[in-house]
Amino acid sequence: MGYSERGNQEWQKDQEKGQTTMADILDGKALAATIHGEQAEKVAFLSKKVGRPPGLAVILVGDDPASHTYVANKRKACHRVGIYAPDINLPASATTDAILEAIDTFNRDPAIDGILVQLPLPSHVAKDKVLLRISPDKDVDGFHPANLGLLVAGEPGLVACTPRGVITLLDRFKIPIAGKHAVVIGRSLIVGKPMALLLLNRDATVTICHSKTSDLAAQARQADILVAALGRPEMIGRDYIKPGATVIDVGISRGTDGKLKGDVLFEEVRQIAGAITPVPGGIGPMTIATLLDNTIDAYRFHAGLTA
Ligand code: NAD
After folding, report:
1. Does 17 participate in catalysis according to the annotation?
2. Which CATH class is domain 3-26+173-284?
3. Res. 18: pLDDT tops 70
4. What is the pLDDT of residues 91-108, one digit of tens each?
5. Is 74 annotated as catalytic?
6. Core-most of 47, 135, 180, 244, by most CB within 10 Å?
7. Global confidence as pTM
């Protein structure tokens, strides 16, 4: 049993006894693989019952190489678990109207349960108009105001994949949330805000930090659970960490050496944290696993399955 299950007090006792400890590595890649296996079984079982598999339309606009890789990974994961995922690639010159038309087609298509428009969109496209057009019951990215409203109200709805993936990871590694102090660094609609709301809905005491927060390190040091989602490569060092804390690194940036970097200085922080997610192999794979969970949830809803 690791520190993530035993908690901060055990960690501190070991420190006092002079035992050097390293954080548990929260292996999101291995966990996501386990979840994909469970999803494949679930999809095979439900597809027989419903008479069709779940369907996810991932709409890709333009030639951004990173977006191509993300979309290919999402479609590959769908195929692996038996989710129907047609290719919809629109040229970089596609107009807002052409994208809206594609969304309308999938909003009406009964074989499609989830629609995702890969971001970023080319600058001439009206992004907000596009995201608003996705029917809330097919909004597997959880960006539609209707789903954000449900999240604020603490009601069931589709929730953004990355923050929901963080909660799944904490739960699967048996890291308690209720009563803990969680600090979220970042307040975007995609990660920071929904993350803070999910933690709050699970009875954590939540602090949200952002680019105008003064003395960020002092705020972060209060955290039993620290979620770094600021997109500043390796900015979070040991000064930001309460000994024994669980550190979730959402950030992904590509360094000048071409390697992926998180927001957390991993080697330094793992010597003081209780548990930590790596980059790559932490929250990234959990985000894709959660996209499939959201698609399966939407499918069950469309098929009228409640249990
Ligand atoms: P964003 O740029 O929209 O938001 C960043 C947030 O961090 C802002 O709210 C800003 O106020 C805050 N911030 C920036 N600099 C700061 C500083 N110096 N101190 C304190 N706060 C600061 O980014 P985002 O879309 O929320 O993504 C954040 C990071 O997470 C990025 O690196 C992104 O690539 C990554 N990301 C990863 C996944 C995944 O699957 N692992 C998914 C989405 C985003």
Report:
1. no
2. alpha beta
3. no
4. 999 999 999 999 999 999
5. yes
6. 244
7. 0.95
